[in-house]
């Protein structure tokens, strides 16, 4: 006799990470998956959230829904706060009522970006943008409401085949630009959504069996680079001359929201959960690349 299926609920399921998470969850034994995009569930609506969790009775909720338009958040912070701050609180309250675990995806923007070594999971937060402030509010809501059942997973520099992103943009531009000027004074960790999706599933399983403590985890690839270095690797994988990519500074690309100059994250918490951190970013990019090229070039 097969054991009963346990349901996982994914919010923001139509996004780049949400799509890969659904794919990964469908390979998990004895697991039923419900994916709700923003059109199906607006997490800023507390009553809708409560109704969805009551209806599906998930054992784990993974929140991939977020306001991710970093620059727009500077002028629309209140709206961003409803999605990034209030939404996770509504989910946490519903999970608390029904005894579900909550995995909430957050960001490197909660840090000040002025460190010189990887940020530990318990490093002091100091967001410098509206986006970072609203995402930090969401983290705090989850951890305060679900001290025993809330997991925050910070990530950064995400790319995947499911939606437009930096890698797909560079693939497109390689075909139409002789040279590209790319910022070389921001350091981070390019992270494939499929790799992050896998760690989220493992973390949720660990949360259910008691081996993954609640709290903050950092879901980014190992290693680090700049956007310039990242683009050169993309060109190399395309068989294009990396010398066509030229370094420039953030000053040359003024944006409404400040970007972290250094947002490399440390991964020590995974060891406590018995889970391997994500692999090196170059190895992941090489594996992801054929699907990225196919998605961009059709």
UniProtKB/TrEMBL annotation:
* This protein's pathway: Carbohydrate biosynthesis; dTDP-L-rhamnose biosynthesis
Gene Ontology biological-process annotations: dTDP-rhamnose biosynthetic process
User: Is the keyword NADP in the record?
Assistant: yes
Q: Which Gene3D superfamilies match?
A: NAD(P)-binding Rossmann-like Domain, UDP-galactose 4-epimerase, domain 1
Q: What molecular functions are annotated in GO for this chain?
A: dTDP-4-dehydrorhamnose reductase activity
**Mind telling me which GO cellular component terms the entry cites?**
cytosol
Show where the RmlD-like substrate binding domain sits.
9-289
Question: What's the superkingdom here?
Answer: Bacteria
Keywords, alphabetical: NADP, Oxidoreductase
Looking up InterPro entries in the UniProt record yields:
dTDP_dehydrorham_reduct, NAD(P)-bd_dom_sf, RmlD-like-bd
EC number(s) reported in the record: 1.1.1.133
| Entry keyword annotation includes Oxidoreductase | yes
Q: Which NCBIfam families match?
A: rmlD
The Swiss-Prot or TrEMBL record describes its family as follows: Belongs to the dTDP-4-dehydrorhamnose reductase family.
Function as written in the Swiss-Prot or TrEMBL entry: Catalyzes the reduction of dTDP-6-deoxy-L-lyxo-4-hexulose to yield dTDP-L-rhamnose.
Q: What is this protein called?
A: dTDP-4-dehydrorhamnose reductase
Q: What is the lineage of its organism?
A: Bacteria, Bacillati, Actinomycetota, Actinomycetes, Kitasatosporales
